[in-house]
Amino acid sequence: MKFLHNNNRVEAFSDGVFAFAATLMVVTLDMDASLWLTGAKAINFVSFGASFFVLVILWKVHYNFFRRNSYIDNWIIALNSILLFVVLYYVFPLKSLVNSWMGLQAITRDELASLFVMYGFGFAMIFLCYALMYQRAYRKT
Fold this sequence. Notes:
By secondary structure, the protein is mostly helical.
C-alpha cells in the first residue's frame, strides 16, 4: 500500500529551503555601509540580483511541478529532498560564477574551470531530479 502525502507540507518545507538559499546569497554580500553609501558596492546588488533570478527560475519549476501533480509519494519526497540539498549547494558556485562574470571576484583559469564543473554538476543534478519527479508522477497518475 502506497502512502500518499499532502503536498502543502512538502511545498512549505521546500519554499523554506529556497528562502534559506536566497538568504545564503545575501549573507555573503559585503555590507560595509560607507562603501554602499558611495555607490562603490552597487555592482554587488546587480550580482545578487542575477543570482537571485536564477534561483527564482528554479523555484518556479518546482512550484509548477507541485501545481500540476497531486501524486506525492515517498519516492517524490526523496527526490525532492535531494533536489533541495543540491539547491543549497548550487548557490555557492552560482554566486561565485556571477561574481567572476561581473568582475567582482578575481579567479584563475583553473579555478574558473572547476567552478564551471561544480555549476554544471549542480545544474544537471537539479534538472535530473525534476525529470525523475515528473516521470514518477506521470507513471503513477
